[in-house]
Design goal:
The protein is of the alpha/beta class and 325 residues long. It has 14 helices and 10 strands. The longest helix is centred in the N-terminal third of the chain and has 22 residues.
Amino acid sequence: MKYLLLAVLLLLVGCASANEVELNEASNRVIRLGFEGGLCQAAIPLAHLHGFFAAEGLETEIIVTGDLVNSRDSLAAGHIDTVAGMLAGWFVPVTQGIDIRFTLGLHTGCASAFVLADSDVIAFERGMDVAVSGAIGGAFHNIALRFIYREGFAPDDFTWRDFPAAEAVIALQNGTVQVAVIPDQVGKRFVEEGILRVIRSLDDADFYQENCCVLGLLGSFIDENPETAEKISRAVYNASRWINESTENKTTAVNDLMAAGYVSAAIDVEYVVGLMSNWKWGVPHYLTEQTLVTSIAEYQALGVIDPTLNPADVKAQVWNPLGIN
């Protein structure tokens, strides 16, 4: 009887160990970090370079994904384990069935509506042609929709045109469009040069505490690797908070990204540090959650998200905080 009990105990311990290994399978291999190359995602390679992942016991590698859409698709296909994305660009595909969950917010800001500096335009006006970078229905189009929604307009009040960010500036200059909603990383350089000015921004008072970008993981990855998912999220969150601590840290961050080849060696360090200083990094969960609630309501009113969906169900589908705060 004694040996039978011992055998049962060993079997139970063995099953528990097997389950633990299965649940934490990802921790036993290199974690693949997606990086599109934009400043918005900087916390991910910096967590890799500065040992925040190593502090969690994780071995990591950076996989350059090319652009925001490819980042999302690479994550959905399981080619990478995590990547940052813009809330405005991920809402639609996620609510339509892609099982990506947001575990934390990375930072505020990152997009504005620009006009020519010498134009008479001071706000959105019905009938305008508006350029958006990243495709119609993409992140910057959806941000533009929130801008015009708060001014009392509907999407059909404007003609929307898709341009890469730099080409959107040319479209402004040749009169093809009157407003361009593009990344601050591109547009604010032209503001400094006196070519453009901002008429609406995620830095404005009604948006400045909203989270722009989030960390995404596949729902199946989180379910199968809960501890590893938490470690990944904590490492990125700690890197985000480190960026937020000082101008010195931001300068170090930009120089380290350049040295590692993750951003162009021709980048203007002072300009980028100034841009990063406009944003709050390491957004607490309650602000990210409030951003989700507000965004869902407005996107449903705009028809971007199916208005028949229960907002609470949408939030529960996409928001999976892991106690990182």
